[in-house]
Amino acid sequence: MAGPHTLAETERQVNQKLVHKNINFEAMAVTSNLFRAANAVRNHLERTVLAKNDLSWTAFVVLWVTWIWEPIETRQIAEEGGFSKATLTGVLSTLEKRGLLVRKKSKEDGRLVIVELTSKGRKLMDSLFPAFNKQETAVANVVASSKQAQLAEQLRAITKFAESRD
Amino acid sequence: MAGPHTLAETERQVNQKLVHKNINFEAMAVTSNLFRAANAVRNHLERTVLAKNDLSWTAFVVLWVTWIWEPIETRQIAEEGGFSKATLTGVLSTLEKRGLLVRKKSKEDGRLVIVELTSKGRKLMDSLFPAFNKQETAVANVVASSKQAQLAEQLRAITKFAESRD
DNA sequence: CTCCGATTGTTTGGATACAAATCATTTTCA
DNA sequence: TGAAAATGATTTGTATCCAAACAATCGGAG
């Protein structure tokens, strides 16, 4: 949200708009930088790693979650990945059509659908994830190595708080 | 990306998949928590503040940027807000139809479109932004007050890095 | 002056995402 | 047991977003 203008410039402008109220600029900086960072990193990873494999962000997350936990129920994929079941259905169909994973009906519960990678899907992830993680490392190394765990924990705490307000 | 499973559980699973490679789990934690936090906070703000005013996230950002910097050229709105010109065109039309802002052609350069809030739009933002900032404050206060500036700065640096890799 | 390339906003076409409705299956409990 | 409630995935309809093509305008080289 804070783009080409610096935070200080934006602060000055906001103060002109709201002289009488007291605005928490530090909080504003936290959230606006949070959104910009997430967007920028996602775009970066899409460009550097995912685009050449013709994978959307969500498609990659589905493959990743499945790769780690297979065999896995679709509802778990949706929960781990953080998107709706409706979204997942479409992505699964696409990935199944491309031969990267398969759907199977659960034998214990006919309502459930179980997902597994194909060997083609596994081979893809074997090469894709290290490349992905390399870029993740480059991003994380922007902050001092000694501060990365703290940063991750702060973000995790923010997530927990925001999700608890459903 | 790290959902119901803890990071430790995911680590163990990933190690089983990639015993021979060395994966940077700390970096993985930073990025995955970054995405989850941004999503959770955005959803939280949409629910608590924006939904009752029937505003989408992008619509709010457009109003906010315009409110702060008006009169403003559309290309600046798109840049500050971090979305494409195509997206902006649609959102501007919606907001103009709802009487919250107006488009005017620039007199100096016929290609440019200048945007200003209407008094109705200004009145909306006068009440909306304090409520929004109150929720931002609640989110930011999840981390110690003394650490908020550092967090914002780390996120800003990450943004800068990711965007520099275009 | 007059092209011609650059810039800007809009339109078009397609991808993505989700809520609500629907269909199939399982579980509950009277 | 069996009807109703609950659960899970899919379909449907709608909103959002973007890249690429397009139209309008500007500005400079010749």
Give the secondary structure arrangement, pairings included:
The structure is a homodimer of 166-residue chains.
Chain A: H1 7-17, H2 25-50, H3 57-69, E1 72-73, H4 74-81, H5 85-97, E2 101-105, E3 113-117, H6 119-140, H7 145-164
Antiparallel strand pairs in A: 1-3, 2-3
The first copy, chain A, binds a DNA duplex (30 and 30 nucleotides) through helix 5.
Can you offer a commentary on this structure?
2 copies of one chain form a homodimer. Chain A is mainly alpha-helical and 166 residues long. Chain A has a domain at 1-53. In chain A, 68% of the residues lie in helices and 7% in strands. Chain A contains 7 helices and 3 strands; from the N terminus they run αααβααββαα. The first copy, chain A, has helices at 7-17, 25-50, 57-69, 74-81, 85-97, 119-140, 145-164; strands at residues 72-73, 101-105, 113-117. Chain A has a 3-stranded antiparallel sheet with strand order 1-3-2. In chain A, strand 2 (101-105) and strand 3 (113-117) form a beta hairpin. In chain A, helix 2 crosses helix 6 (119-140) and helix 3 (57-69) crosses helix 5 (85-97). The first copy, chain A, is elongated, with a radius of gyration of 20 Å. The relative contact order of chain A is 0.09. The mean pLDDT of chain A is 88. At the A-B interface, helix 1, helix 2, helix 3, helix 4 and helix 6 of A face helix 1, helix 2, helix 3, helix 4 and helix 6 of B. Chain A binds a DNA duplex (30 and 30 nucleotides) through residues 56-58, 73-75, 83-91, 109-113.
Helix run count of chain A = 7
H and E string of chain A:
HHHEHHEEHH
Assembly type of the shown chains?
homodimer
Structural class given helices, strands, pairing of chain A? Answer: mainly alpha
Q: Hey, which two chains have the biggest interface?
A: A-B, 76 and 77 residues
Which value, in Å, is the CA radius of gyration of chain A? 20 Å
How many beta-strand elements of chain A?
3
Strand ordering within the main sheet of chain A: 1-3-2
- The amount of beta strand of chain A, in percent, is 5-15%
Binned, the helix content of chain A reads 55-70%
Our measurement of the CA-to-CA distance between the termini of chain A, rounded to an integer number of angstroms, reads 24 Å
Main sheet properties of chain A: 3 strands, antiparallel
The backbone outline of chain A, from C-alpha atoms, is: elongated
Average pLDDT value of chain A? Answer: 88
Low-pLDDT ranges of chain A:
none
